[in-house]
Specification:
single chain, 655 residues, alpha+beta, eight-stranded antiparallel β-sheet, four-stranded antiparallel β-sheet, 20 strands, globular
Length: 655
């Protein structure tokens, strides 16, 4: 089996790329569950034999105007190898029918309500540079510590250099986000970086700081601070993806390469400043007015509201609306009550991520949580904790917000306020000594920490399996894994010798022999043994107990605790629909049991679009379990046994 071979996909990539005629001969590149899909400018330049001779390549299929290189369940590794050595794939807008790449070609499709989907998108966009963010946050915490100890003066040049080293990634966060957001949405990375760079350009920042009216060809422009912001650049890059696709369709190829980025930048920068700026300012001013009114009504209530929502406002960039109020308070009265609940809010995030570190079984998540907790506690730098751990897991973020509300309310009840512009961490508590009750400030922080830690430890969260966590560190190489993977409870399990392993049907319908499938790769058994079903229902269910290792709208990869890998592929060439008419109910890393819903497909719509809906169930890797036997049933319902694996079984023709 292909999955049993050790393949160096670093060698596969250049060999395949050379075999298709080089990067210049590729119009677009994508991949589905098993194949690299090239659209070539000149098919005659491709050397099919050379491509098939490349390491890890099973075969080549030329169909529907595509040059399809069949890799198997490690296709994402080969795809990642090609994108690393070329400009193909990740930084290009998706080809026709390639909508799926905007939501992660080999990852999961966001599901749930709009807020849940937004959180998933934000978390996935932060994933590639979480370690850098955590390291920079820890460096900032260290700098704060050494200045508090008097080892380095804040007025020294040494401090300036070290502070820039720690703060640079946060100041230029929009630029980093532009890169990963572009990969997520299928936009051009370099154009996205140019747009983000414009938002943090010094002259734009100066317009905001000056406070004078700003207009763009007579249109009033509300200026805000974009440094360290998150939502503005993500929204900008999302819109950019549509602008680029529209321009690529409208412009002739002779000028497209340079006119598209020129017009995209010229449109997106003013559009972002004119729309997102006012929206951020409106939301920030609204939050500022509400918090100010609440402090006049009841400091305890205001502290609870601000402590509970501070990190939410940070995620959406609304917190910038409070900064002018804080600065004005410090200038006029020498202190600001708005700072009162913020240490509790920051420490609560640190406590939640500390609990995650103790509870999670993911080694990579444990390593990330450590420095994230330290930077949250000491310096109030919560970005690594929020984006790297808590928001990603959702529940710990909610627990921390609840704890921040309780602790913030206690701290503000005593009139606690800061007398300096600070980052709200434990090392900055000295700024709270002069105004209000310092004892209640300490109690509020302590309660927030204890409550956040306790809720996370007691109520728990949906953990990220180790294989998914590792993939998150390098999302460009999502793996379906190898045989012998761990089971849902973290321990590898084995089926007793001689006992058959059964695979249920994922869809209702009429059973077909794999050889009758109108696709040469599936029909030949190149990818593995299995069967097919002509579906009569659009509901797709899990055929085995195990872990979801890959999700595409039209295909699911699953792995049993024993290491048996199963591919459920809905339709022939349905990847070209780009996810249209498909919905998914699971994500990569989810644990499922036989019969659990994986997703749905509108069979009538897919057939109306001209695609065959035959669903293939393929055993990609038997993990040494034995040969495959197909059911003798002509018609199957959900959870009916379709395939069985056993050491002394023979393949039985479909009756």
């Amino acid at each position: 089996m292909q999955g049993e071979l050790i393949v160096d996909y670093g060698k596969t990539a250049p060999a395949v790329l050379e075999g298709v005629g080089g990067e210049s001969n590729v119009e677009s590149l994508g991949h589905c569950a098993t194949r690299l899909r090239f659209v070539l400018k000149d098919a005659s330049k491709a050397d099919r034999a050379a491509v098939e001779a490349a390491p890890g390549v099973i075969t080549v299929v030329e169909s529907g105007g595509q040059f399809q290189v069949v890799i198997g369940n490690d296709v994402a590794k080969a795809y990642a190898g090609i994108t690393r050595i070329s400009g193909l794939g990740a930084d290009r807008a998706p080809a026709k029918g390639g909508k799926a790449s905007r939501s992660g070609s080999a990852g999961s499709v966001p599901r749930g309500n709009p807020l849940t989907r937004l959180v998933d998108v934000i978390s996935s966009i932060f994933t590639p540079f979480l370690w850098t963010l955590a390291g920079a946050g820890l460096l900032k915490a260290t700098i704060v510590l050494v200045t508090k100890l008097g080892l380095v003066a804040e007025t020294s040049q040494e401090f300036t250099v070290l502070n820039a080293a720690g703060d640079g990634v946060f100041f230029f966060l929009p630029v980093l986000l532009a890169v990963t957001a572009a990969k997520r949405f299928g936009s051009n990375q370099w154009t996205a970086m140019a747009i983000a760079g414009s938002l943090v350009y010094p002259a734009i920042g100066a317009l905001n700081e000056a406070g004078d009216p700003v207009s763009f060809f007579g249109i009033p422009m509300v200026m805000v601070a974009y440094a360290s912001s998150v939502i503005p650049v993500i929204l900008a890059v999302y819109v950019q993806s549509f602008v680029e696709r529209g321009l690529d369709k409208a412009l002739p190829s002779s000028i497209r390469n340079f006119i598209t980025p020129m017009l995209t930048i010229a449109v997106m920068v003013p559009l972002t400043l004119l729309t997102i700026g006012p929206a951020s300012d409106w939301a920030g001013q609204g939050a500022s007015s509400l918090i100010g009114w609440l402090f006049g009504l009841s400091p305890a209530v205001a502290g609870a509201v601000l402590g509970g929502t501070w990190q939410i406002m940070v995620v959406f960039g609304i917190h910038w609306g409070l900064v002018p109020m804080m600065a004005n308070d410090l200038a006029v009265q020498g202190h600001s009550l708005l700072y009162g609940p913020l240490v509790a809010a920051s420490a609560a995030q640190g406590a939640a991520v500390l609990a995650v570190m103790l509870r999670t079984r993911s080694k990579s998540l444990k390593k990330l949580a450590g420095p994230a907790a330290v930077s949250s506690f000491l310096a109030g730098i919560t970005e690594p904790a929020v984006y790297g751990v808590n928001l990603r897991l959702k529940k710990p973020f909610v627990y921390a917000c609840i704890a921040g509300a309780v602790g913030g309310g206690i701290a503000s009840a005593g009139g606690s306020a800061s007398t300096a512009y600070i980052m709200p961490g434990l090392l900055s508590l000295s700024a709270y000594l002069e105004v209000g009750s310092f004892a209640l400030q300490l109690i509020g922080v302590g309660v927030a920490v204890a409550l956040s830690f306790g809720l996370t430890m007691a109520l728990g969260f949906k953990d990220i399996p180790e294989d998914t966590a590792e993939a998150a560190e390098a999302p460009e190489v999502p793996e379906t894994g190898a045989a012998g993977a761990d089971s849902a409870d973290g321990a590898a399990s084995e089926r007793p010798a001689g006992e058959a392993f059964e695979v249920a049907t994922p869809v209702e319908g009429r059973v077909l022999a794999l050889a009758d499938v109108p696709d040469p790769v599936f029909a030949s058994g190149t990818l593995g043994d299995g069967a097919a079903v002509a579906p009569t229902s659009g509901e797709v269910h899990s055929p085995i107990d195990g872990t979801v290792v890959s999700v595409l709208p039209h295909a699911y990869g699953l792995r049993s605790p024993e290491g048996v890998e199963v591919l459920v592929h809905i339709g022939i060439d349905t990847v070209r629909l780009g996810g249209e008419h498909f919905t998914t109910a699971v994500r990569q890393g989810d644990h499922v049991r036989i019969g659990d819903p994986l997703g749905e497909v509108d069979l009538a719509a897919v057939e109306a679009a001209g695609y065959d809906t035959t669903t293939m169930v393929i055993i990609l890797d038997t993990a040494g379990t034995g040969v495959v036997r197909t059911t003798g049933h002509a018609e199957v319902e959900h959870s009916t046994v379709l395939l069985s694996l056993g050491p002394e079984r023979e393949l039985t023709p479909v009756g």
